[in-house]
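Researcher: We are triaging several targets before committing to wet-lab work. For this one, the compound of interest is flavin mononucleotide. I'm pasting the protein sequence and the ligand SMILES. What I need is the predicted three-dimensional arrangement of the protein with the ligand bound, expressed as structure tokens, so it can go straight into our comparison scripts without reformatting.
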Amino acid sequence: MEKKAVVLYWSRTGNTEKVAHSIEEGLKEAGVNVSLMKIDEAEEIDYFDYDLVCIGFPSYFWHTPKPVSDYLTKHFNNHRRQGKVKWGSPKVPGKNVLIFCTYSGPHTGIDEATPAGDYVEQFFDHIGFNILDKWYVLSEFIGNTAASTEGRMGDIRGLPTEDELNKVKEKAAILSERL
Ligand SMILES: Cc1cc2nc3c(=O)[nH]c(=O)nc-3n(C[C@H](O)[C@H](O)[C@H](O)COP(=O)(O)O)c2cc1C
């Protein structure tokens, strides 16, 4: 049966949006029925209507940007009201999530992105979703040249490149085999 996925994202300077589009393309080419939505266009969706939810955001101060944490909290509270947050958080068969985070790591590298991914993971783990993966995509700090050239990750201008975005696309297609 055809699998259904949604790619949800928030992006201010376009990096996360590029990655979201690549994931959408990869899933589509693998035959998945996929919709792409900015989180502010996706207020009403129910994660449980999908076999796969992909959710993407940039790291802001090693956390999620406020609109993203507000979105996740609102949906979590709805699920709690619906009795979907159970003691022990048993896995719900067929419900999967992919978390993706773009980051620039100017100070401490990927360690200033992973806490954001771990935080988002908990919202889905609590409602029994299977965490397929967490992807961290190194990206230019658009609008901040010093952070894009002098940081721990070196010269990150132009990232993610077309080549890297193609790899994301391929990885998304491979991931769909696990649905
Ligand atoms: C306010 C602000 C805070 C940021 N904080 C971090 C951070 O803590 N760690 C990090 O690796 N990158 C940080 N960044 C860089 C962004 O995470 C990175 O450039 C990201 O790819 C931007 O995504 P977008 O283009 O989708 O908005 C920050 C950027 C901004 C604007």
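Researcher: Any quick observations?
Model: The mean pLDDT is 98.
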